[in-house]
Design goal:
336 residues; alpha+beta; eight-stranded antiparallel sheet; six-stranded antiparallel sheet; 14 strands; disordered C terminus
Amino acid sequence: MVTQSAAIDLLHAQIADTDTQWSLGTFGGIAEFSRDRGEEVRLTQSATGAAAVTARGGIAIELSDACRPFAFECITRSSWSQRVALCLPASDCAMNRRTVLTELDADGEALQPEHRGSTLFDLGLGALQADLCVRIDDHNMVAQLRSHCGRSVFDPANTAMGLLLETSPHRVFISRIGRIEVYQAIPPTSGKSPDGPHTHVLPKLLKSGRTHAATEPIPDGWIPCAHLYPRHPVSDGGDLFDVACHDSFQRMIERFGLPHCLAIKRHVADAIGSGQPPSNLTITLDRHSRTGVRIALRQLKAAGTASPLLKAWLAEFDDAVVEDDADEAVLRHAPR
């Protein structure tokens, strides 16, 4: 049983870690927060929450008794990612689900006092667990945007989205457990997202109505309302494997993950360590357990495991890795 105290301890430790990244939103609409080492930051912690604010953006998380962290790993094209989903029961997670651009009140919950008089507009993207908003501090801009309210921002006749792209207001994504604010400019449609806090709004993915990616092994009845991404054990150059970093996240899975997530990986490691061929694997594999096998093999490979059987296991379950022995640099802990 995961206690609120354990979840708060996790939150406090991760908000203080410069290398941990964060996201909040829904499938197809997400705000991301990260900070650089040495970047000036205002950190605050309380008995139930924590916050971090920089000149580029901020995050505040408040954990209720109902919130539960789920730690897990996902497969990527040639490596793996790791994350902790901060979830609420489906019955407790719903936000306002507005479907048209809507003017709200002044943002009294803004992370910085100077922004609390600025006006929030809900973009009306209809997400279950997050309200995706912008915050305007210019009276003329408020008046212009107000004239577009009551219609979808994706309506071809509604020029609100073009106005937002041109003026780059603060983006404020809010869930039942907190918010992420992004102060950096919105890049042009042909441009790359900036390092640090930024947002992604992808209409095609939003239309799916999903709350999270199908690759995330989150139990039925739970909805992720934010994610945190601890530092990945593979170096930026893709050559070094940080054992301490890896072990740290395995302890998170042990504490906050689902029991089978570690069990399948330990089974694979024990089988290879005792010289068993892949044909001896007798566990029935569903989608997520097969992913667990692949991740276990990639982690053994990244850690430099010298077993001659490893290549045979990779060929059986993850032949793409065998074909590309060079292996590209891992997708780090950044949200995707």
